[in-house]
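Below is one such record:
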Amino acid sequence: MPQIHQTAPDFTLPVTGGGEVHLAGLRGSIVVLFFYPRDDTPGCTKEGIGFSEQLEAFETAGAKVFGISRDTMEKHDRFAAKHALTVPLLSDSEGTVTEDYGVWVEKNLYGKKSMGIERATFLIGPRGDVVRIWRKVKVDGHVDEVLEAVRAL
């Protein structure tokens, strides 16, 4: 799991709309990675819509934003189309990136334990280092808080 001031773990993942995103290829840009549990669930939908609505503001501030879950590209494409999401979604179907970022965790829901993605966001600076981490994210107000942090860089 990366810590603040450490280099963010590199990856190459497929992205909605086709192609791949290679994190190292984004050096020189601010990058926001928001990890979310599953496509088309209430919190994940609200978060995806929120980042999509503010995507232009993030771009104006010099940041590239990506959502990451373990869902397949087919599920991502359906999710993005259904909710008119403009934020690019990356598929970590093999789970390597969620493990590298320490967001694949044991969860406890109504006494039942299972493994899943902890909602978390990583702000990566232009040199590729982790600048800020939000863990156990609550969706309400989160997008605005991340945008404020990006503008402060």
Q: What stands out?
A: The mean pLDDT is 96. The radius of gyration is 14 Å.
